[in-house]
Amino acid sequence: LPILEVQDLHVSIDGQEILRGVNLIVRAGEVHAIMGPNGSGKSTLANTLAGRPEYTVTSGKAIYKGLDLLKMEPEARAREGMFLAFQYPVELPGVRAWQFLKAAMDAKRVHAGEEEMGAREFDQLLRSKVEEVEIDPELVRRSVNEGFSGGEKKRNEVLQMTLLEPTLALLDETDSGLDIDALRIVSDGVNRLRRPDNAAVLVTHYQRILNYITPDQVHVLVDGRIAMSGGPELAEQLEARGYEWVREETGAVV
Ligand code: ADP
Ligand code: MG
Ligand code: MG
């Protein structure tokens, strides 16, 4: 059973069809990269899988761990081990980063029939993960993302992902705004998490981050459909030849 299977997914925003039949199978142990030109629907795919309400699924299916994903609330998706990291992280004034992290962990544990983590146990775990992610320990005492630099937001996001050990990590990266350090933090985080029983889908416009994360499969989303799929070499071809080449090869409208 794949971790995620998307079947002929059609999604509209404000009555306009953006995804026009996306098919995708992500198996345990795999990292997939979704690439494509701006406006091709990459974020729409990520946001739909995350359950954001402004995206209307008009037809198709998404099966996550055998569950009907599209019927699940965003919180239920998270409790079932989906992790969603976004281009524009929200700021939560008054909620300290560590509190947010503990609440996320506890929700998942309670759902799994376990008890909430004790303060001391959590503190120890957080300390070790803070070291692993190379994040400033002061950062977790501040309000979530409030006044964080771009790099700090990324580190905080990777810290959250590292703590939660998701079954499916979904990352929507602009990576244009990422400096080389932040890029390394994100890549290290994804690579450290790689296990035979989990998977990641990395959404990215640029090939650059794929110098640090070697995906098992690369998909090119063009005009709301996956126009081409291949191995890591496809990302290199895209880097060398641009998205226009995909149009020439497939007849898809870029
Ligand atoms: P990508 O991430 O590949 O750049 P998006 O999924 O963000 O593409 O956008 C796909 C298309 O959907 C674009 O034409 C964009 O203008 C449109 N779109 C995205 N979000 C919204 C929204 N909230 N309201 C209206 N149109 C949107
Ligand atoms: Mg169709
Ligand atoms: Mg996008």
CATH topology of the domain at 4-94 and 167-250: Rossmann fold
Q: How would the global form be characterised?
A: globular
Number of helices: 8
CATH architecture identity of the domain at 4-94 and 167-250: 3-Layer(aba) Sandwich
Helix content: 25-40%
Q: Regions with pLDDT < 50 over 5+ consecutive residues? A: none
| Average of pLDDT | 91
How can the largest sheet be summarized? Answer: 6 strands, mixed
- β-strand percent reads 25-35%
Question: Ends: how far apart?
Answer: 33 Å
Care to count the β-strands?
Answer: 12
Q: Structural class of the helices, strands and pairings?
A: alpha/beta
Rg, Å, rounded: 18 Å
Q: What's the CATH H-level superfamily name of the domain at 4-94 and 167-250?
A: P-loop containing nucleotide triphosphate hydrolases
Question: Strands of the largest sheet, in order across it?
Answer: 6-9-10-3-11-12
Bound molecules: adenosine-5'-diphosphate, magnesium ion
Keywords: ATP-binding, Nucleotide-binding
Organism: Geodia barretti
GO molecular function, one term: ATP binding
InterPro entries: AAA+_ATPase (IPR003593), ABC_transporter-like_ATP-bd (IPR003439), ABC_transporter-like_CS (IPR017871), FeS-cluster_ATPase_SufC (IPR010230), P-loop_NTPase (IPR027417)
Q: Would you kindly provide a brief summary of this structure?
A:
With 254 residues, this protein is an alpha/beta fold. Helix content is 36%, strand content 28%.
